Amino acid sequence: MSDTYQPDGMADSPPRLEVRDVTVRFAGLTALDAIGFTVEPGSVHAVIGPNGAGKSTCFNVLSGVYRATAGSVRFGEAELTALAPHRIAALGVARTFQNIALSPRLSVRDNLMLGRHRLTRAGFVAAGLRLPSARREARVHGERVNEIAAFVGLAGRLATPVGLLPYGVQKRVELARALCMEPRLLLLDEPVAGMNGGERREMAELVLAVQKSLGISILLVEHDMGMVMRLADTVTVLDFGRRIAGGPPAEVQDDPEVIRAYLGAAGGSGEAAP
Ligand SMILES: Nc1ncnc2c1ncn2[C@@H]1O[C@H](COP(=O)(O)OP(=O)(O)O)[C@@H](O)[C@H]1O
Ligand SMILES: [Mg+2]
């Protein structure tokens, strides 16, 4: 892992994310019921809860994929609930998906270059005509992709089609692609789902390295309690769309409501795959 990786562009401390009274209804089902929490600048905040609690729905609202029925999401001065996904991304909010969303036939490098897209100025016409400005820009982005790949331990895999990589490595590519957007807030949806113990520990280290090196805020949706205990500064617990607890991980872990929610869920230990 390289230690030369530095934030690029918007380098000052990230804005606070404030989620207030967010409700999401799908025909008859209340997936989120007036939930709220705050992600402090530079912190790791975990949203946890049993399957179906509303974690992914929450992410989909924050990234603009779902529209909230009510409530507000403020990222610094910006109100996110009215914005389209690309506008939210342009404010520096990058996400990964619970299920891998990469182009399997493309190389790691090409997948990461797609992550640079929102930062590309030259546009498709200039790039297609191979104008000097576009070539220069492509070179700069290519260098940045190399740095980020080295940081997440993918330097040797840049030419490999993503579909040929082991699952745990593909999850790293997803994280790297999100970093290629130079985020100020990184949303990670179950980054260790489906991984074995060793891969989980490596991913946890990587997330901590991202927080330390870049000083960005990280909002983590996670089913694995051990991962949350290792990583999170603060935790919000959802169950059936309601916020049932919140605070430092050690406190939340001992909360009777939280224990009940997890024991009542399939898998019991909270370590089960989604
Ligand atoms: N697009 C959708 N349409 C209808 N129901 C949905 C949709 N997305 C999620 N849900 C429902 O909302 C609830 C919360 O789901 P989700 O946010 O995926 O939970 P989690 O990520 O915590 O497992 C579930 O009951 C799920 O079936
Ligand atoms: Mg989910």
Question: What is the structure about, briefly put?
Answer:
A 6-stranded mixed beta sheet has the order 6-7-8-3-9-10, with helices on both faces. A 4-stranded antiparallel beta sheet has the order 2-1-4-5, covered by helices on one side. By secondary structure, the chain is of the alpha/beta class.
Bound molecules: adenosine-5'-diphosphate, magnesium ion
Domain count: 1
CATH arch. level architecture = 3-Layer(aba) Sandwich
Structural class label: alpha/beta
**How does the overall form come out from the CA principal axes?**
globular
Low-confidence stretches: 266-274
What is the C-level CATH assignment? Alpha Beta
| CATH superfamily heading | P-loop containing nucleotide triphosphate hydrolases
Give the topology string: H per helix, E per strand. EEEHEEHEHHHHEHEHEEHH
Fold-level CATH name: Rossmann fold
Q: Beta-strand percentage?
A: 15-25%
How do the strands and helices of this protein lay out in sequence?
Layout: E1 17-26, E2 29-39, E3 44-48, H1 55-62, E4 70-75, E5 78-79, H2 85-90, E6 93-95, H3 108-115, H4 123-128, H5 132-151, H6 167-179, E7 185-189, H7 197-214, E8 217-222, H8 225-231, E9 234-239, E10 242-247, H9 249-253, H10 256-264
Parallel strand pairs: 3-8, 3-9, 6-7, 7-8
Antiparallel strand pairs: 1-2, 1-4, 4-5, 9-10
